[in-house]
Amino acid sequence: MSGKLILAIPNGSLYESTLAMLSKVGIGVVTNGRKFEARIEGSDIFDRAIVMRPQDMAEALVDGMVDVAIFGRDWLAEVGLGDQLITLAELNYSKKTNQPVKIVIFSKQSELVDREGILVTTEYPMLTSSFFKKATIRFSHGGTEQKVAFGKYDYGVCVTETGDSLSENGLVIVKTILVSPTILVTKNDSQELSYFASLLVGALRSSNLRLLKMNVHKDLLEKIISVLPALEAPTVNQLSNGDYALETIVPKTSVANLMVELQGKGVSGILSQEIEIAC
């Protein structure tokens, strides 16, 4: 694959977080009012972007309308076109968290019952039909939780990120149908798209990491290296006074405790920096 490509960007809940992810790798998406086409800045791979419904992206890829798309795996499974497309990467982000969303069956009761007379409202008719063979399945345009909470339907099928809204409305998850990470998908793979995928994965991965820099007395070097939870071997450079400058990448969640511990062991000049991309 060569030349300028068209990138499909999801509207709705993933829109802002997708733009933020692209921005981390230096790619800007410039929109013009309500126009669905957008200009791409900072990348020679793409000619332009199209902002569209995630539900339509798999079909758009198969038909050649777009070359690469970012959307949830749920819509790839729902339309049944996965065997015609290539998933380049799983991108660990959703609307609010860095975790994949889930497609769930929920109800006021914890038992799954499939029989005539049962009503199911769903945002995913194809996926739902695998679990309900006798019940009546009706498509939901939205407000799926409300329809079940008010008693109109026995079960609902929807996407949830945390499950908090379901529980707050007296509903329980009966079964998880699918864990749905955000994915980068194409019909025709290429080396440049593989590199692009690795950049996005690296940008998301870096949000959970920090770069620690510090000065270490020469007599403490081996002791300090042994306590660092480094993802890779630390970089060590000797200073003019015989001491060492040390750099290492550590999980974000360990930074605070680690900096306190390092100071207690005599380390000075500790600096914690954010990482833009960690490929």
Task: Please describe what this structure looks like.
This protein has a seven-stranded mixed β-sheet with strand order 2-3-4-1-5-12-6, sandwiched between helices. A five-stranded mixed β-sheet has the order 9-8-10-7-11. A four-stranded antiparallel β-sheet has the order 14-15-13-16, covered by helices on one side. The protein has helices at 15-24, 57-63, 73-79, 125-128, 144-149, 164-168, 191-206, 221-227, 255-264; strands spanning 5-10, 28-30, 37-41, 46-52, 68-72, 86-91, 101-107, 119-122, 136-139, 155-160, 172-180, 182-186, 209-216, 235-238, 244-251, 268-274. Helices cover 26% and strands 34% of the residues. The longest helix has 16 residues, at 191-206. With 279 residues, it is of the alpha+beta class. The chain contains nine helices and 16 strands. The model has no long low-confidence stretch (mean pLDDT 91). The protein folds into three domains: 5-98 and 181-206, Periplasmic binding protein-like II (D-Maltodextrin-Binding Protein, domain 2, 3-Layer(aba) Sandwich), CATH 3.40.190.10; 101-180, Periplasmic binding protein-like II (D-Maltodextrin-Binding Protein, domain 2, 3-Layer(aba) Sandwich); 210-274, Alpha-Beta Plaits (2-Layer Sandwich).
